[in-house]
Automatic annotation (TrEMBL):
Transmembrane segments: 21-40
Alphabetically ordered keywords of this record: Endoplasmic reticulum, Heme, Iron, Membrane, Metal-binding, Microsome, Monooxygenase, Oxidoreductase, Transmembrane, Transmembrane helix
Protein family according to the UniProt entry: Belongs to the cytochrome P450 family.
Pfam family, any one: p450
Coiled-coil residues: none
Organism classification: Eukaryota, Metazoa, Chordata, Craniata, Vertebrata
Bilayer topology: Peripheral membrane protein
Protein name listed in UniProt: Cytochrome P450 2C21-like
Length: 510
């Protein structure tokens, strides 16, 4: 404390003398004081936090981390510092959990203590502490609980949702058939089906694939995924006060999100005009009814702003994760035609050609089930999950982690664990099959994360991936435009998410 008082007095003296000093000298003195303060805080906190690479003043460890592939950089650091270590993104300490044991111990063993949401300034600016994904405390608990209840009421995990997905799968098949086996980029069409499934839940409506609104919404969604996984956004999150006022792709991200929210608000207004308090039709109606019931409660978390943000959360996460996994999945199946052939054989044997696949079929299709899991494991869609935060001071192993400390859970280190998945860098459905060819569950499969922050839409996503993929392979052979050996499956970006390369293929009817 004596150090702080001394530093405060020096800053005060520097300020008082600034009128008679050269501005450059004042800047140097202030910057030096800030660096001294940072070094003091860092040394003070370091005694409590796990070890890690020595951070630079202001910049932290950002210059030591490859912002194009953060996950790989963290894996290298784990070899030096072990499964629990600290890195600094700017002046912000972040505890990294690397490996199955550390991740499981935190997310399931101490799930309440690690259930906070860490700061992501680029999205915090949009969410403002509302919604499901980027909220904390009572706001998060009530909104998440309410959303899960509504989704279950509307059939998530039940036949009603399955029927909607099957109907949309047939629409997707018809759209793919209209490509006439010509080369096409599947990005847009593979986004249409998940988008319409989500829209049917939130808005009780779907779009024709030629609808301009659908085209615009999917453009926003795909662009947001690409932008949010770039090194620029990593820098924004590390230095928001500086980067925010600079020109850059973050401005395009904010513009896209504003466009999405404008569309959402229009839909809400339509619902308000036709709302029947006794007959909710979709997610928006349920939320509006809840708002009406709590309109006299000034502390209510159910507000118009929270509704907009919650829908944006569900809408964005529900579309992009599923469509990106499908797009990556088709690329992998073209790279490995023998795998696609075995899936098609299983579909022919169990389902046939004259009816649509159902979730009941999955239990009799162990190889297909293994392929879907292996696609998710291999692509490692969200390498480090979204940042968590400690909700209280906690002791984790031999370390004392203060309340509010950011936590990064390396899902890559779990999904690519070479003890659980031999040759993890290879695409091999055998990772989820036993010696008899039966499907084999794995506790290491954390594609949807784990604990209290596990993906709200996990059940829906699992349904969509299985039903949409099997419908596509039931009706088409996937023909690449290059030799399968020459197909590159390396992501073009690996930040918040892994973004697959763009490609074209031909859907050949069978």
């Amino acid at each position: 404390m004596l150090f702080i008082k001394s530093l405060d007095s020096k800053l005060s003296i520097a300020f008082m003398q600034s009128t008679s000093m050269d501005p450059f000298i004042v800047l140097v003195i202030c910057l030096s004081c800030l660096i001294l303060l940072f070094l003091w805080k860092q040394s003070y906190v370091k005694g409590k936090l796990p070890p890690g690479p020595t951070p630079l003043p202001i910049f932290g460890n950002v210059l030591q981390i490859n912002t194009k592939d953060i996950s790989k950089s963290l894996s290298k650091l784990a070899k030096d510092y072990g499964p629990v270590f600290t890195v600094y993104f700017g002046m912000k300490p972040t505890v990294v959990l690397h490996g199955y044991e550390a991740v499981k111990e935190a997310l399931t063993g101490q799930n309440e203590e690690f259930s906070g949401r860490g700061s992501m300034p680029v999205f915090d600016k949009v969410a403002q502490g509302l919604g499901i994904v980027f909220s904390n405390g009572e706001m998060w608990k009530q909104t998440r609980r309410f959303s899960l209840t509504v989704l279950r009421n509307m059939g998530m995990g039940k036949n009603t949702i399955e029927d909607r997905i099957q109907e949309e799968a047939l629409c997707l098949v018809e759209a793919l058939r209209k490509t006439n086996a010509s080369p096409c980029d599947p990005t847009f069409l593979l986004g249409c089906a998940p988008c319409n499934v989500i829209c049917s839940i939130i808005f009780q409506s779907r779009f024709e694939y030629s609808d301009k609104k659908l085209i615009t919404l999917l453009h926003y969604t795909h662009e947001n995924l690409r932008i949010s996984s770039t090194p620029w956004i990593t820098l924004y999150n590390a230095f928001p006060s500086l980067i925010h006022y600079l020109p850059g792709s973050h401005n395009e991200l904010f513009k896209n999100i504003a466009g999405q929210q404008k569309f959402i608000l229009e839909k809400i207004k339509e619902h308000q005009e036709s709302l029947d308090l006794n007959n909710p039709r979709d997610f928006i109606d349920y939320f509006l009814i809840k708002m009406e019931k709590e309109k006299h409660n000034k502390q209510s978390e159910f507000t118009m702003d929270n509704l907009i943000t919650t829908i944006w959360d569900v809408f964005s996460a529900g579309i992009e994760t599923t469509s990106t996994t499908l797009r990556y999945g088709l690329l992998l199946l073209m790279k490995h035609p023998e795998v696609a052939g075995k899936v098609r054989e299983e579909i022919d044997c169990v389902v046939g050609r004259h009816r649509s696949p159902s979730m009941q079929d999955r239990n009799r299709m162990p190889y297909t089930d293994a392929v879907v899991h292996e696609i998710q494991r291999y692509i490692d869609l969200v390498p480090n999950s979204l940042p968590h935060a400690t909700t209280q001071d906690i002791k984790f192993r031999e370390y004392l982690i203060p309340k509010g400390t950011e936590i990064l859970t390396s899902l890559t280190s779990v999904l690519h664990d070479d003890k659980e998945f031999p040759n993890p860098e290879q695409f091999d459905p055998g990772h989820f099959l036993d010696e008899s060819g039966n499907f084999k569950k794995s506790d290491y499969f954390m594609a949807f994360s784990a604990g209290k922050r596990v993906c709200v839409g996990e059940g829906l996503a699992r349904m969509e991936l299985f039903l949409l993929l099997t419908n596509i392979l039931q009706h088409f052979t996937l023909k690449p435009l290059v030799d399968p050996k020459d197909i590159d499956t390396t992501p073009i970006a690996s930040g918040i998410t892994s973004v697959p390369p763009f490609y074209e293929l031909c859907f050949i009817p069978v």
